[in-house]
Design a protein that fits this description.
This protein has helices at about 5-45, 50-70, 80-100, 105-120, 120-145, 160-270, 275-300, 315-325, 350-365, 410-415, 435-445, 495-510, 520-530, 545-555, 575-580, 595-609, and strands at about 310, 330-335, 345, 370-380, 395-405, 445-455, 455-465, 490, 510-515, 535-540, 565, 585-590. With about 600 residues, the chain is an alpha/beta fold. The strands form three sheets. Strands 2-4-5-7-6 form a five-stranded mixed sheet. Strand 8 (about 490), helix 12 and strand 9 form a beta-alpha-beta unit. It is rod-shaped and about 155 Å long. The two termini are about 85 Å apart.
Length: about 600
């Protein structure tokens, strides 16, 4: 029951209680009026030694009190009220018919009229008066014409029709006055109760408005908490990403010489040499470490990627086909990949990584029990109210959903799954998979949502913005080859190990290399002979004069000098920004020899034209 119904019920209850009090007061009043008639009737019966009549009078009075005082409290429905009033009317008519005008029957009829007015209404009270008047006249006429089996002599002045008419007229006048007074009281009562009910309804309406406002504010507060929670997690991940980027920078400076020296040793040691297998293991480990650093940089949004306009349906199907061959048949794969989903701007490798990580997680959740892995893709439209993060904008999104029927996760675990190095797989997981997915999606201005319950499986929903342009742009990819040259290169890096290794690598490629550990020293060497150098390769993070500032100073001296910028990590520099500064090339460490040689030749050959 809602609050409005509750107030209405309370109002009706108040009306019923007030009417009951009014009827009880009327009953007491009528009872007092009947007492003299009862006393006279009983006294006369005793004097005439007609004790049965006295008993009848007493019983009638008791019955009146039972109906009028006790049973009136139990009246709840109009049908019951009418039955009780009808009984009182018949009782009054019976007493009037048997005992005449001295028997108190008119008082019963009077009480019947007054109670009818108070209980049902003024109109019914006037009808009750008419009924009682007809009863008085009818009984009088019947008595005069001897239609009733009783002795007319016992009726006080009953032989005259005129006396009955006078009695009926007096009854009518007195009863009308009493009924009219009772009706006015009831109308005032009902008016007051109506005003009370109207006031209660108004208060109820105001209360409902207040309740709705409280609910609205609670919803706003809940949304605010969700946004604060999202921002808190984003800030936490951002701070972890910055820390991870710094670790990646130091790790790259360590990894770069290992990878470079290993590559040069592999070129020097012939096939079949027993040391070559060991070097291959070192080289493979270094490449795996490079991939791990790449994942860390993806999480920290510092990886340099080649984005293109692409449809992701083929990538998803390729991953599902690949994973189908590697998971047991107890896991069923279902897919609903819609072809009408639009084009997104992304790196195909990263999309492959997203799908692979999510499907692998789904497989691990069902590895022991089996189940259903479902992948779906569709295009949806998000309004301002549907956005999941502040970075998103209203518009069309590609919704990729990867779900499983596995073990599921509780709320505490769900809140931590995107934290780096957090894993529930023990030795099977590194804890970087979902962190990388989160970093990729965030970098694309998308969002990822997780729904999971213990024992009911997990569903990942990835939202990626759809580009308005429908054409796909393919970026050229050349097969990397080790290419050398004889040009003069100025090499700048503040790390001794990297400087030594890189110089050897460049000289192995045929270039003439002059190396400097300090950017200030490099600027001085370039100032002395600016036309001597064909290319400058410099690190970004260096004391006194960072690599981008050094590039600016070099171009002031010689505007056409090409610069290749290298770094393990930078919060402020990217390939796009480097190009806007006039820097010809940008590479992330650790750099393999094929990549470095290809980039150098690309810059030098372009500069010659």
């Amino acid at each position: 029951m809602n609050e409005k119904d509750h107030y209405l019920k309370a109002t009706l209850k108040s009306v019923a209680e007030t009417q009951a009090k009014m009827l009880r007061a009327i009953t007491y009043t009528v009872s007092v009026l009947i007492l003299p008639a009862l006393f006279i009737a009983v006294k006369g019966s005793v004097e005439n030694k007609v004790l049965t009549e006295a008993v009848v009078y007493v019983i009638a009075y008791i019955v009146w009190l039972l109906f009028g005082v006790i049973l009136i409290e139990k009246i709840k429905y109009k049908v019951r009220s009418i039955l009780i009033l009808l009984i009182i009317f018949l009782l009054g008519s019976f007493v009037l018919a048997t005992r005449g005008l001295s028997g108190g029957g008119i008082l019963f009829l009077t009480s019947f009229c007054v109670m009818s007015t108070a209980l049902i209404g003024l109109k019914f009270g006037l009808l009750a008066i008419a009924m009682s008047l007809f009863a008085i006249i009818g009984i009088g006429l019947s008595m005069v014409h001897h239609l009733l089996p009783f002795d007319p002599d016992i009726v006080w002045n009953s032989a005259s029709v005129f006396s009955w008419l006078i009695a009926g007229a007096v009854f009518s006048v007195l009863t009308v006055c009493m009924v009219w007074t009772s009706g006015i009281l009831q109308m005032r009562l009902l008016k007051t109760l109506s005003e009370l009910r109207h006031s209660q309804e108004k208060i109820t309406s105001q209360n409902m408005d207040l309740i709705n406002e409280i609910k609205r504010r609670k919803d706003i507060e809940q949304q605010k908490k969700e946004v604060e929670k999202y921002l808190s997690r984003s800030q936490r991940l951002e701070s972890i990403g910055t820390l991870a980027g710094g670790i990646a920078h130091d790790f790259n400076n360590i990894l770069f010489p290992v990878l470079g020296h290993t590559e040069m040793l592999l070129e020097d040691i012939p096939e079949g040499d027993p040391f070559r297998d060991n070097l291959n293991q070192i080289h493979a480990g270094a490449l795996r470490a490079k991939d791990l650093v790449k994942q860390i940089l993806t999480f920290s949004r510092q990886e340099n990627n080649e984005w293109m306009l692409m449809k992701i349906q083929p990538v998803i199907k390729e991953v599902l086909k690949l994973i189908r061959s590697s998971i047991p048949t107890t896991i069923d794969i279902k897919q609903d990949i819609r072809s009408d989903c639009g084009v997104i701007k992304a790196d195909p490798t990263q999309i492959h990584q997203i799908v692979m990580n999510l499907t692998t997680n789904a497989y691990h959740a069902m590895e022991k029990t089996g189940g259903v892995l479902k992948a779906s893709l569709k295009e949806i439209e998000l309004s301002e109210q549907d956005l999941l993060s502040p970075d998103m904008e209203p518009g069309a999104y590609a919704l990729l959903t990867i779900s499983d029927t596995g073990t599921g996760m509780d709320k505490a675990v769900t809140e931590k799954i995107f934290d780096p190095f957090f894993t529930t797989k023990g030795h099977k997981g590194t804890g970087m998979g979902l962190s990388v997915v989160h970093g990729i999606v965030a970098k694309m201005d998308g969002a990822i949502q997780v729904n999971s319950e213990p024992g009911k499986g997990t569903a990942f929903h990835v939202y990626l913005p759809v580009e308005k342009r429908l054409s796909e742009k393919s970026l050229p990819h050349s097969n990397p080859q080790i290419q050398g040259g004889t040009e003069q290169i100025l090499l700048v890096d503040d790390e001794d190990d990297i400087l030594t290794m890189e110089k050897r690598m460049l000289e192995r490629l045929g270039y003439n290399v002059i190396s400097r550990k300090s950017s200030i020293e490099a600027l001085e060497a370039f100032s002395e002979s600016p036309d001597k150098f064909d290319l400058v390769i410099t690190d970004i993070a260096m004391p006194n004069l960072p690599g981008d500032k050094l590039s600016a100073e070099l171009t002031k001296i010689r505007p056409d000098i090409p610069v290749l910028l290298c770094t393990g990590f930078s919060e402020t520099m990217s390939e796009e920004k480097a190009a806007s500064l006039g820097i010809k090339g940008f590479l992330l460490k650790p750099i393999v020899m094929t990549e470095l040689s290809q980039k150098i030749r690309e810059i030098l050959d372009e500069n010659k034209h």
